[in-house]
Amino acid sequence: MNKDPIPILPKDTSYLDKELGSGCYYKNVEILDKKVYTWTIPQWSVALDREKLFSKTFEVGGCKWKLLLFPKGVTRNNIVSVFLYSVNANDENCPQSWYACSHFGLALANPYEKKIFIKKEAHHRFTTKENDWGFQQFIKTNDLYKVRGNTGKSLIENDTLSVIAYIRVIKDTTGVLWYDFSEWDSKKRTGYVGLKNQGATCYMNSLLQSLYFIKEYRKATFEIPTEKEQPCNSVPLALQRVFYNLQHSNSSVDTRELTNSFGWDTVESFMQHDIQEFNRVLQDNLEDKMKKTKAEGAISNIFKGKMKSYIKCINVDYTSSRVEDYYDIQLNVKGCKNVIQSFDEYIDVETLEGENKYMAEGYGLQDAQKGVIFQSFPPVLQLHLKRFEYDFEHDAMVKNNDRFEYPEILNLSKYLENYNNEDLPENDYILYGVLVHSGDINSGHYCAFIRPKNNDKWYKFDDDNVFPVSSYDVFEENFGGKSIYKSNSNITNRYTNAYMLIYIRKSEIDTILAPFSEDDIPKHIGERITKEQEELKKRKEQLENERKSLIIHILTDEIISHHPGFDLCNINHSYLPLTTIPGIQILKTATFKEFIDKVQSKYRYSKNHFRLWEINYRPNETFRVSKVVQCQDENKKMEEIFKPNNEYYHGPIIKYLYMEIADPNNLKSYNEPFLPLELYPNQCLVFLKYFDIHKKKLTIIQKFTIEDIEKPLIHYVPLFNEIADLPVNTSLNIYEETYPSMIDLLNQNHSLKKLEIVDGDILCFEKKYSDNQENKKHTKNQMIIPQYFDKLLNQKIVTFINLSQDEETKIDDVHLTLYSDTTYKEMSEMLGDRIQQDPENFQFITYSTHQQIRYLPNNPLDKFLEPNENVLFYTILSIPLKEYENIIIIPVDELTAKHQIKKSHNVMIYSDATYRDLYESIYKELGYELLRDAHGNYHCYARKPSDYESKELDIKSKGKEEDEEEEDEEEEDDDDDSFISCDEVLMTKRIYCTCENRVLTIIKPDDYMSIRNHPRDVKINYYVEDIPLTEQNKKSESNKLVSAVYFDKIIENLHGIPFPFEINENETYGDLKKRLFKNISLSNKELNEENVYLVNKDSQLLQYDDDDVPDEYVAIGYDCPDRTLMHFLSDKGLKINS
Q1: pLDDT tens sequence across 495-529
Q2: According to the model, what pLDDT value does residue 965 have?
Q3: Per-residue pLDDT at 740
Q4: Roughly how many angstroms between the first and final C-alpha of the chain, as a whole number?
Q5: Catalytic residue among 384, 445, 715, 1055
Q6: Which domain CATH number covers 808?
Q7: Can 384 be counted among the known catalytic residues?
Q8: pLDDT at residue number 1111
Q9: Does 800 map to a domain?
Q10: How far is CA 253 from each of CA 244, 249, 257, 258, rounded to the nearest angstrom?
């Protein structure tokens, strides 16, 4: 029995509000009209015999409606069907664009007791195509008569049934409420297009759409020079093409070109990455490409702000601070209700007092305040919400779905340094984009809500589709928290919420979102894409034409006579160049007569002077002439004569035919173009190949008609000699070319029938020498037919394609004939001789797998080129390949004070280099030049002021050293760079090497040990850290360094980034822990003194009282789970090719 009975319905619309007002569709919509309509059906038993019943017409919201009921169901299965029927939509004069949105409930009720009822609810967008909506299976017909509950009554009483409709007509503010998007045209309806999802690239699509509408970003991207590049390996060009297509395409844009330029394979496209990580890697890549171009600095100008970390003593005048750049801000979600609270927490001041006092230089331990304040915000502010976090209780990454609100307009004045309690309008920011994540930590989907123009129109960019949305959808729907939807009175969690917010400074929004000019797009982008589209269109038209056609290639005696290999032509093997066989394209529906007319016109023979033979593959995969094409009815369609092997195949039909030309002698003798079959019933068409054993090649290839296969083969030897211009009595070796690896010597005393010679067979013959002594002297310079074909079998025509992107230095493709035993060195020399380049400088790359082929000079071809491949890429290096292969790329990470990765670098160095070489190379990668003076001491120079001013330390020039370094500086200043002395860098940075999450060694400038001496088959990492100020100021050499490591429960489970930690003499265990916590990559809230252990030489974990002074330990360990996000989501980090 329903606990919330229905009151009297026809007049009381409050029931409608009560029953349906809690539905999920009505928190953000305007109700145009609502009504309750009751339809009473008398004589139900009579109605059962009718197929369907209509109610009277009634009006709600300016639209006319009826109720439609099928007493025994739409499918006559004795289940009542009930629908709401739109009269307007069924009117033949109704415009195609007409629609009405309605939420409605339908109820079947006892006509006298309204408390006895059953109901169902639905919502629908009524259109001319979908003009009714409801429930096909409402209730079984027999159940209408069942007593309901303890009422003693059924829905039908006195053969009467009531149908009650509760109808709301909803205002469609976006134009797409409950829209069927199966036929949605984003460009036509919104002016924008989406991006295709390759599998799991929705996160990339969302970010790219948000970047696309930022005019200055798009303009800077187009300013990167790419005219001589290819999109397959140029990230800027591929991105330019994506942006161009987003502006000009009428349908969703493919991003495979872009991901290919990243160096990603298909697996990577099905691996979902973090938006923030992808954004950082992409912008780093583009910033590098923008250097020394018009676009240099553009990304910084758009997204870069500055923040200051500080520690300010309370009782003395001492402040330590560091200014850093940022491109995005990570805001906490947990424990914060909105963006304002999260910003408040971000700049919250921590007091260092008691045991946690700050060691101020020159003042000792002091009470101090520690915090972060912003010095500037960028024009475009990216806020990443920390939805993903580590759950210590469950030892796993989880997604935080708590409600977190964000405003449309945000003033950030109070978070800036020198705030004077006034919210200045220049610090007003307007929400531009919301990137949303749906799902949990293991799977999910990203989409973007963007306001492309400075107005109130929002759009949802969901991969391929773009459609308008309401402000409610942008804000309330993506705040997260508990669901506002009610299902059986239970409130559920929501897993769709904002993950990234993008705000734009209000005073600059008109400029940032200004319309993009075509003049800002390099002409070569549009010209190349237009050309490609035209070629694609032509290719599609060609393919469509071919689909309707037969393509018939006709093999002639002229073509056969120049073929030096197996069969009569080569159409698919790599041992020889492919044979060019002209073709005739004709519609499948054309007649045979039309085809013959085309042949006559092309080859200038009358139809009585040639006949056509089919060429087919035999079971042994040889390609041979088989039978004469015969067609008695010239009006027969070509598709009926040449049917495909697969009856379901509807593509182009490709056939090969041989054209046999009439023999003039036959015309004289028989007055017929070919031997009459009635006179020569045992005739057979074969092909002869004469091999010159001295010239070692086939010199004659032609057709030959055997008059009678019953005769022995030797009978035809004089004719063979005549063809080869040999004396008539010359002895011959005659072979049948069965297939490439089977060249059979024939017994000439046997008949051709016994030898199983049939139409299309190939006979090869050569002069036969006797075994006398004189002839043996000449055989060394001779070759016989089986040897020739064996050599062909091991031969391959390899195409070499140069990968140079410079059109001026681009080299045409080169074709070389190689053999399976051709060595790598021989191949290089052949290519070098052909293109006049040093063969030592070639680097070869496989065609299918794009793998570099190692320099192994004596390796034969079949060791590095797959049997079915005949193409190799190559590049021309500036140094010999064997030297290039000796170069290795060593990843080096710069660390923050808390030993988190700040920036990653790739350092190129020879594999036999020393640690000294590595030391110098790392500094060079960091932007410094190291030079030695006459005494062998290093001096450090920065190339540009901006390179060293942005470092965490304030580096000052050494004036007293300028004179002695001036000469060295001039030698290094080849590029007219201004070098500035900064020797303090050498004392403030430390380079160290780790192995399996332990510190292996400190890299020093006077270490000549080879980098090869590190342990093999283990992962080696190199890091650059800033030496703590307290350690820099110490003069004592007695203090030593130990390894500080992270482990999970047991010391063998190491993880994270270890770091060198200085041991202070006579330091207590409590002081050691406090000092350690300043270097650990965990927040202060997560640190726990109980998790600190000392490790002795036997790998035992030790703990002491805080007042104890420990000794005899070799490492310090901190026990914590491995909470790296990528550790849980993927073993493979995100990378984009440089």
Answers
A1: 899 999 999 999 999 999 998 888 889 999 999 99
A2: 43
A3: 86
A4: 69
A5: 445
A6: 3.10.20.90
A7: no
A8: 82
A9: yes
A10: 10, 7, 10, 11
> Which ranges of 486-644 does DSSP label H, i.e. alpha helix?
509-512, 523-547, 557-561, 592-603, 638-641
Identify whether 714 is part of a domain.
yes
Angle, helices 202-212 vs 275-290, to 10°: value is 50
We report the CATH number of the domain holding residue 1076 as 3.10.20
Structure confidence at residue 391 (pLDDT): 66
pLDDT of residue 868: 82
Amino acid at 286: L
Can you give the pLDDT at residue 943? 59
User: Based on the structure, what is the number of domains in the chain?
Assistant: 7
pTM value > 0.70: no
Select which of 101, 202, 569, 764 is catalytic.
202
Question: 224 and 365 share a domain?
Answer: no
Provide the pLDDT for residue 137.
92
Residue identified by tokens 């009470």 is 367
pLDDT, residue 428, reads: 96
Give the residue numbers spanning the domain of 159.
13-170
Confidence class of residue 27 from pLDDT cuts 50, 70 and 90? low
By the 10 Å C-beta count (0-12 exposed, 13-18 middle, 19+ buried), 906 is classed as exposed
Q: Are residues 375 and 503 in the same domain?
A: yes
Which positions ≥6 away from 354 have C-beta within 8 Å?
none
Q: Are residues 595 and 533 in the same domain?
A: no
Of the residues 744, 761, 789, the one at which a domain ends: 789
The two structure tokens encoding residue 429: 């920011």
Looking at residue 583, its pLDDT comes to 92
In terms of domains, do 985 and 1023 share one?
yes
Same domain membership, residue 683 and residue 651: yes
Asked if the structure places residue 968 within a domain, the reply is no
**Could you tell me if 353 and 313 are in contact, meaning their C-beta atoms sit under 8 angstroms apart?**
no
Is residue 202 part of the annotated active site? The answer reads yes
Nearest 5°: CA angle at 761, between 760 and 763?
A: 135
Residue 973, domain member (yes or no) = no
Could you write out the DSSP letters of every residue in 789-846? Answer: HHHHHTEEEEEEEE----TTT----EEEEEETT-BHHHHHHHHHHHHT--GGGEEEEE
What is the rounded CA–CA span in Å between residue 230 and residue 532? 13
What confidence category does residue 265 fall into, taking pLDDT thresholds of 50, 70 and 90?
confident
Q: Give dist(CA 501, CA 424) in Å, integer.
A: 22
Claim to verify: residue 700 and residue 564 sit in the same structural domain: yes
Both 457 and 502 in one domain: the answer is yes
Which CATH number does the domain housing residue 535 bear? 3.90.70.10
Are 501 and 368 in a shared domain?
yes
What sign has the CA pseudo-torsion 283, 288, 290, 291?
positive
Predicted confidence band of residue 7 (pLDDT cuts 50, 70, 90): very low
What is the overall mean pLDDT for the chain?
85
Q: What are phi and psi of 678, to 5 degrees?
A: -70, -25
